[in-house]
Amino acid sequence: MRVVILGGTGPSGILLIEEALASKHVVVIYARNPQKLPAHLSEHADVTIVKGELEDSKALDTALAGADAVLSALGPTFGNPSGTPIARGYSAVLDAMRRSGVKRLIALGTPSIKDEQHDKFSAAYAAMVAAVSFGARSAYKDIVAVGEVIRACEDIDWTIVRVPVLTNGRNREVQVGYIGDNGAGAGYSLARLGFAVFVLRELEKGEWIKQAPLITSA
């Protein structure tokens, strides 16, 4: 497939690019600062780089031309600007996907994006979300808005991959479920590599379309 990767210059995004290439996909990296990419990716024969801001419709159209899916490692940080810049960016990306006929989106999320239908109460996750809500209010508001923007898209086959505390471990295996269950919900961390592996597996299998599973390291 030809996949467009957002957030590719961060640690999770770099692993996502590497896994996509290892799976023999053709990769388009859409980045604001592509100079941050390591040479083994920026110079790869199966990589195309398109420079642009998240709300740059012309650059997004260029990146999405001929694409089969969008894979995103974008997420707010503790220094997140006020407002909801990432959610606004996703709105622009989704509009560009419609113009280009791209139907598949797999995007990073966090437990701050609630799933009222499937999540159960977890004191640990409630405390985690509360800490983010009070300590990083802008980031919290942005990621919640991201969930709202994506879930509103009935015409897009989306999956929001909710992740807890990310680590640099090399564990490729993940548990998949919902907050408060006895599987994924019993864990509180995830290796970034596990996120990348899961996204590529979900791209192939499509088991969680229009759902927001929680994944943790197995």
Automatic annotation (TrEMBL):
Family: Belongs to the avfA family.
Annotated signal sequence range: none
Alphabetical list of InterPro entries matching this protein: NAD(P)-bd_dom, NAD(P)-bd_dom_sf, Polyketide_Oxido-like
UniProt protein name: NAD(P)-binding protein
Example GO molecular function: biliverdin reductase [NAD(P)H] activity
Domain called NAD(P)-binding: residue spans: 7-202
Entries under SUPFAM superfamilies matching the protein: NAD(P)-binding Rossmann-fold domains
